[in-house]
Structure formats: C-alpha cells, structure tokens
Amino acid sequence: MVNQVFSSIKKELENVYQKIERELVIKAGHISSFAHLKHSVIDYAIRPALVIFSGRMFGRLSEKTLALAAVCQFIHMAAQVHVDVNEQSTAQIPGQEHDPRDGSQFPVLVGDYLYGKFFTTLCDYGIVNFLKPLSEIICQINEGGLLRQKEINSKVKSQVVARDVVRRETAELFAGCCSLAAESAEAGSSECLALYKFGKNFGMAYGLLENGMPFDQVVHYLNLALGELSLFNKCQARESLEELVNLFLVQKIAVQRMVV
C-alpha cells in the first residue's frame, strides 16, 4: 500500500536515491562496510517523499528540491548511525574476525561523513540558504539523543520526556522536509508554516509508532496533520500526502520496527 502512494513520484525518488548512492562509495569502499545502514523501504523513502510531495504542491520540482530531499535523508542516516553506536567497543573474540560495524570508531566516522555530505550537497546545488535551519534540526536531533540516553538511565520514566525526544529526534526533521521544500518551490510564508505544522504532527505520529507508544496518541497527531493539509487547495500532491497519513491512521502500519 505504501509503495502505491510513492508510485506517483517513483522517478523523483530514484533521482534522489542516485544522488545518495553516489556519495556512499568512497576510496575505502562502500560505507555500509563500516556502519550498519538499517532502513526499511518506508523509512528510506518517507523523508525524501515528504520533500517531493511538499514541493510538488507548488509546481514543478527543481533539481534544488531533489537535492534537498537527499540532504534530509543524509541527516537521518547520519543520526541513525550515531544512535546505534555502542558506548563501549565490542571486544574481539579470539579466533573470530571482528566486524568493524559493531565497534564505535568506524560508525562515528561514517555518521560524521554523512553529516559532511549534507553540507557539501547544499553547496553543490546552491541551496546554502538552508544551512541554518537544517543545522538547527541536527542540533535538535542530538539534544533528543542526549535526553533519550538520560531517560534510559532514569528510574522514573516520563511520557512527557518521551514525547519531547520524539519531537526532537523525528518530528523536527519531518517538519523541515515539508516546510523547506515549500520554501524551495517559492511558496508563501503562511503555506510554509502550514506544511511545517503538518510535518511536525506527522513526524510525531511516526516517531510515537516507532517507539511503541499508545495508538490513541498517534491518532491525535495524525488528525492534526490532516487538518493542516485541509488548508490547501486540492491537488495530486496533497491527496498523496493525505493518503499516506490515512494509511497510518486506518491500517496502523507496522512501523514499530522499521528495519529490514
């Protein structure tokens, strides 16, 4: 069902994937040899898709918007690699070959490399104007990671803190995908704000599902996201976004563990 939603932007997604893949091959080899890159189909596609659909709402997509889609995915990939880093390097078992992806040094370097590619891609496509908001999103993601680690070590668990972690680690990037794509397509400030709110609410729902939170909380944010979309005139891109949200709302897409 998700693939059907993405089918209308298949060519654009392939363009974005090609941009990403070109940067994953370095002199030392493919970076997947040095860090675990764990993504399901939906988790690999959803952020670029949000950029593409949001940009399409305001006309034909430019190469700059497609580059922005790749940048947003670089940020997500870097964050995920860093999240998976062990606090202590895995000890090598005598007689058994050590997998560098299970340590800490190589994954940290890969994550830093991916963050670097976010910046160089902005430069290559002349969209450095997005550097500040995207850097602020990266700061939010890292602050969320600190809060999450602190909460893990806390004896008293708080749903308020858990939602704040989801907002920082997931929702802010979703919001940026939508609002910055609209800005790249020269949308008005009110339209950019509405898409920011849509992305933030959808990102909250996605992150809560990812973390196994109660579905009634997820429904609340999905309905808020649909409310923001209702402010826009009907078009194929808006309908695709609504269809994507409704898949989560009606079918409870199994994204609790979105890895292949």
From TrEMBL:
Highest taxon of the lineage: Bacteria
Keyword Magnesium: yes
Family to which this protein belongs: Belongs to the FPP/GGPP synthase family.
Name recorded for this polypeptide: Geranylgeranyl pyrophosphate synthase-like protein
Keyword Magnesium: yes
Pfam families in the record: polyprenyl_synt (PF00348)
Single GO MF annotation: metal ion binding
SUPFAM superfamilies in the record: Terpenoid synthases
UniProtKB keywords: Magnesium, Metal-binding, Transferase
